[in-house]
C-alpha cells in the first residue's frame, strides 16, 4: 500500500491554530490512509475490469495520487499553522496583511487538491477508453455521466441525512441492503466511523462534477466559436473540422527553433496531413496565435 509520510507535528500546529480542542495524535495520518485505502480499492476494482497490460499504469497513478496527496495535505497544515484564527488569537494586533496572503495560499492549495482528486477519475478510466473529445457524441455522453454523478451526490447526501436523523438504515429508501452491508463492514474494520458516506467521498464526487461541467462548457464553447483560420507570413492556420484538428501549414519547412516552439505549444507533425496540428480547443487556438505571431514579431 503506497503510504507516504504525514507531518503530524504540522497537523497538530494547524489544529491548535483554528481550534481550542486538543489534537488527537495520529489523526491526520489516519485520515490520509483512509483516503489511500479508498483509492487502492478503486485501483484494484479497475484492475479486475481491464486487461493486465493496463495494471502498471494504474499502479503508477495510484502511487502518484498517494504521493501528491501527502504533499498537499502537509502543505495545507503548514499554511493553516502560519497564522492562528482570530477566534484563537483575538483581534488585538491581528496581522491582516499576512492573513490575506495565507488565504491566497490556502486557495491555491485547495485548487491543487481538486486536481489531485481528478487522478482517481484517471484510474477509473484507465483501459476503458474514456470519452474522447473527437467523439461526435462527446457532449451527450458527458452530460449522461454528469447526471449520474449528480444523482450519486444527492443519494449520498440523502442517506447521510437519514442516518443522522434516525441512527439506523431501516426504512431508508435511498440505499440497498448490499450497500448497507458494505458500509457496516467498513465500520467494523475501523475504515471509517461516522456518516455512511465520509465527507471526502462527497468532496471527491463533487470535484468530479465540477470537472465534467467545465469540460462540457469547454466543448460547447468550442462548437459555438467561429472557426475561421488565418494567414501569416510563410503559411496559414486552418480548422480541419473533419479531423478535429487545428493545423498550421507552412510554405517551407520551418527552422529548428520554430519546430521546437511548435512542440512546446503542443503541436505535432502529421506526415499524412503535411501539417503541424493538435486537437481543436480554445487552448489550441490561443497557442496557434502565439506561434504564428512569434514569427511576425521577429520581422517587426
Mean pLDDT: 84
What share of residues is helical?
55-70%
Shape: globular
> Which runs of at least 5 residues are low in confidence (pLDDT < 50)?
294-300
Judged by helices, strands and strand pairing, the structural class is alpha+beta
Described by strand count, sense and barrel closure, the largest sheet is:
5 strands, antiparallel
Strand portion, in percent? 5-15%
> Spatial order of the strands in the main sheet?
1-2-3-5-4
How many individual β-strands?
A: 5
What's the total helix number? 10
Distance between the amino and carboxyl termini: 58 Å
List the helices and strands and how they pair.
Blueprint: H1 8-18, H2 27-49, H3 55-82, H4 86-89, H5 96-125, H6 138-166, H7 177-188, H8 199-224, E1 230-232, E2 235-240, E3 245-250, H9 256-264, E4 268-270, E5 275-279, H10 282-298
Antiparallel strand pairs: 1-2, 2-3, 3-5, 4-5
What's this entry about, in short?
By secondary structure, the chain is of the alpha+beta class. Helix content is about 65%, strand content about 10%.
Polypeptide structure, described:
By secondary structure, the chain is α+β, with helices and mostly antiparallel strands. Helices cover 63% and strands 8% of the residues. It contains 10 helices and 5 strands. The chain has a 5-stranded antiparallel beta sheet, covered by helices on one side. Strand 4 and strand 5 (275-279) form a beta hairpin. The radius of gyration is 25 Å and the shape is globular.
Amino acid at each position: 500500500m503506497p503510504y507516504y509520510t504525514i507531518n503530524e507535528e504540522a497537523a497538530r500546529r494547524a489544529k491548535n491554530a483554528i481550534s481550542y480542542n486538543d489534537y488527537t495524535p495520529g489523526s491526520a495520518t489516519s485520515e490520509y490512509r483512509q483516503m489511500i485505502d479508498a483509492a487502492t480499492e478503486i485501483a484494484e476494482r479497475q484492475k479486475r475490469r481491464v486487461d493486465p497490460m493496463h495494471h502498471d499504469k494504474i499502479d503508477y497513478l495510484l502511487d502518484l495520487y498517494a504521493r501528491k496527496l501527502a504533499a498537499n495535505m502537509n502543505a495545507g497544515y503548514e499554511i493553516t499553522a502560519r497564522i492562528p484564527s482570530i477566534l484563537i488569537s483575538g483581534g488585538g494586533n491581528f496581522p491582516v496583511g499576512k492573513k490575506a496572503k495565507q488565504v491566497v495560499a490556502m486557495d491555491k492549495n485547495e485548487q491543487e487538491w481538486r486536481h489531485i482528486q481528478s487522478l482517481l477519475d484517471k484510474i477509473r478510466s484507465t483501459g476503458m477508453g474514456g470519452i474522447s473529445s473527437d467523439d461526435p457524441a462527446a457532449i451527450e455522453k458527458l452530460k449522461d455521466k454528469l447526471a449520474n454523478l449528480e444523482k450519486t451526490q444527492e443519494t449520498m447526501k440523502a442517506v447521510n441525512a437519514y442516518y443522522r436523523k434516525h441512527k439506523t438504515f431501516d426504512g431508508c429508501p435511498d440505499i440497498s441492503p448490499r450497500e448497507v452491508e458494505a458500509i457496516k463492514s467498513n465500520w467494523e474494520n475501523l475504515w471509517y466511523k461516522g456518516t455512511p458516506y465520509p465527507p471526502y467521498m462527497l468532496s471527491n464526487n463533487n470535484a468530479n462534477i465540477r470537472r465534467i461541467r467545465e469540460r462540457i462548457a469547454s466543448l460547447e464553447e468550442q462548437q459555438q466559436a467561429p472557426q475561421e483560420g488565418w494567414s501569416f507570413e510563410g503559411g496559414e492556420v486552418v480548422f480541419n473540422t473533419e479531423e478535429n484538428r487545428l493545423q498550421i501549414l507552412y510554405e517551407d519547412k520551418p527552422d529548428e527553433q520554430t519546430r521546437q516552439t511548435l512542440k512546446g505549444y503542443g503541436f505535432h507533425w502529421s506526415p499524412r496531413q503535411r501539417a503541424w496540428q493538435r486537437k481543436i480547443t480554445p487552448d489550441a487556438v490561443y497557442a496557434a496565435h502565439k506561434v504564428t505571431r512569434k514569427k511576425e514579431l521577429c520581422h517587426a
